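Thread: Newbie trying to understand structure tokens

Hi all, I'm a second-year student working on a class project, and my supervisor (Dr. K.) asked me to get a predicted structure for one chain before our next meeting. I've only ever worked with sequences, so writing a 3D structure as a token string is new to me. If someone could post the tokens and maybe explain what I'm looking at, I'd be very grateful. Here's the chain:
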Amino acid sequence: MDSPEPMANLETFRRRLLDEKYPESSDNTAVRSAVMQLSAARGIDLLAGENLYADGPKIGVWRIGLDRGSGFYFDACFAITDFTTISTVLIDSVSPSAQVQTYNMLAGFPANTPLW
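---
Reply by user tm_fold:
Sure, no problem. This is what the structure looks like when written as tokens:
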């Protein structure tokens, strides 16, 4: 596993997500070109497969390189945080696919505990 790499801005995030999911060496030049014509936030949403609200207020976005093997088939993880939510985007550059998981403040409560 690599050390976390902070993304400086949405443009950097889009480029790194695009490079992980559809590497420049792949035969996906049309997809790469189409994603780069969108706004950075819309391109990120398209690559993730759902709306991440990337253009909203953020604390940070980081890329963590992962090691494939032993039944774990992802190459990179992107972690996105705002003031109430943590989202992760796992990228498999072979398929290519993305798996998104979002955790918010309510997910931090123990199961079967009344909220009010």
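A couple of things are worth pointing out once you decode it. The longest strand covers residues 85-92. Residues 14 and 32 are 11 Å apart (CA to CA). Feel free to ask follow-ups in this thread.
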